[in-house]
Amino acid sequence: MWFLHSVWRKLTQSRAVDSAGPLERAFFESVYRLAFITGLSTSDDYMGYMIYSSSVRMLSGLVVICEIWHALGNNMSLDELISSVNVIFIHLITLWKLMIMVSNKKVFKKLARALESPSFDISTENRQAIVNHWVLTHKKYLKVLLCLAYLTLAVWVLHPLVDDMDFNLMVDVKLPFAYDSPLRYVISYLFVGTMFSYASSMVIMSEVIMQAHLIPLVCQFNVLANCFENVFEECASEFPGAICFPDINKHELVKHNMFVEKYRKRLGDLVKQHREILDQTTDLKTILSAPMLGQLACSGLLICFVGYQATATIAENLGKFVMSLFYLGYNMFTLYIICRWCEEITIQSQRIGQSAYFSGWESGVSHVPGARATIILVIARSNKPLVFLAGGMYTLSLTSYTSALKGQNPNMKDVSLRIGNVEPLCNDLKDNPDFHVEDFRNNRINRVGAVGMYLSENLREYCIFGNGSPHEEGVVISIFYKTNEGSTESNEVDLSHRTIMIRRDGLADDEVHPLFQQHIQSENERRNGRLV
After folding, report:
1. 377 within some domain
2. CA 436 – CA 439 distance, rounded (Å)
3. Domain of 416?
4. pTM, 2 dp
């Protein structure tokens, strides 16, 4: 084991590791070494490594081209199409994310070196323990991520060797030559396997890099919160008068100008550090916003597709089932760690205000000129916590994660469906006081307040232009959204003009009316909390 460790350190000796400080190395050493071996290091610009890096990127891009070529040039079954889409989507999203990371390499380097800032105070044992806790947490999650990722890759690469198909490769690609002979198959397998392994390693590295830059921000917020909580006690312990008179009262300390000046300087340093961390987090939010939207969409799609493959192949192909299961677990875990650490940053940034409140202001230090205003501003800023958004639309949190797994919009409260002839559906729509037919002239969906309504195309054509038969079957989908807390909009939705029941041909109007009224009453009772 010692020999393998020495060989690994020798092969991955990056300049980024050599130039890193102790705290940066604690969080980023493994990341720098992995980035070096996968050809993604931006700190090593000598000729030999540039040739290696360009070759790796070319092979990774080539396997994506071969995958797209295969998907466009062949008639595939549903299972084959899903397999191709899974691989193509995750590789394309990864290439996009890595391009953005490389174009913002200065920002990422600045974030990594922020741990070595003089304002990052870890002078106490308590704060050193906080840093050690987050270093160990980062390493633990990194090990789990790498183990799951490379186990998935190993199963994926070895599966063609044990399945029932002859001359099968680990990924669906189209090559410019046939590989239906043993020699050609071995050459093709090794070549495609090398390309696929490098491309997959880049997928893994994109997740590793993001986690590596999120956890240090959590650590910095946690350390800063501890600094605010103990600012008064630390200033008092360093005050010369406290050494001579250990039993001196806190209210007496604020009467000494030397202590007041020390407290004001320390408070100003903490505010400066707070501002620096906020700027770093805002920069990272801006950079990751668009890639995270792609990541969220890709992960949701892959979880659905791979989940379908896993359930469809469990009885037919055990090897394919195991491969799909590992791939599903990897996608779920990578989405989890992103949402997990983004939410942790939100929590820790909000905690700064609580820590400032418990900073000892009640001892009389709030009467120090500028101290009260500073503390109030810190609390006010922390009451608006930093929230990571994917594309500026979807909050990255564990709530969003669970909603993505359930395939549900977290802002959606309920959905109702109406199916029936377009003529009565159109008449009901015209009688609806909330929605107007003309609102659907240019769009099949419209939203009023907390309710959105979607019309099928044939229903819209009949209502707006009179086109089509009145006996065609139309569809109305009503979407009820959650209202914001404190909003003036009522959470109670009047259902007297909205039909939730399914209406079919052959049901007379006099039969519909009592059923309709009964359904409205039960639905209103359910929404008012009287019916479970």
Report:
1. yes
2. 5
3. 411-527
4. 0.71
